[in-house]
Predict the 3D structure of the following.
Amino acid sequence: MSIRTEKVASLLQQELGAILQKELPRSGPFITVVEVKVTADLGIARIYVSIIGTQKEQTEAMLYLRDETKSIRKILADRIRHHFRRIPELEFHEDHLYERATRIEQLLSGVRKSTPENDEQ
């Protein structure tokens, strides 16, 4: 990525994080904008979100984000219109890194518990 696309991605990540924090219902899952990747022509922004909650809550949150993409884009445009001539199209993708890290930690904890202590050496 070029310096410009990195700056745009960083700005979008900050603003989208703030929008999602304020716009989503508080009773739902916890949603974090993990990463934003912007195409070289700044036409498309791929937003990777981590959703912490039950499987049902995760599915509903992704459906909500995809259904409300236009309204989220409009809110974003109102916030950053002085930075861009054209606001990129938004594509939301779920990032499962948190779930994988939690699973690895569970597996490692299980291994630690099952191995005998080597205090005798």
About this structure: The first strand starts at residue 30 and ends at 38. The two ends are 51 Å apart (CA to CA).
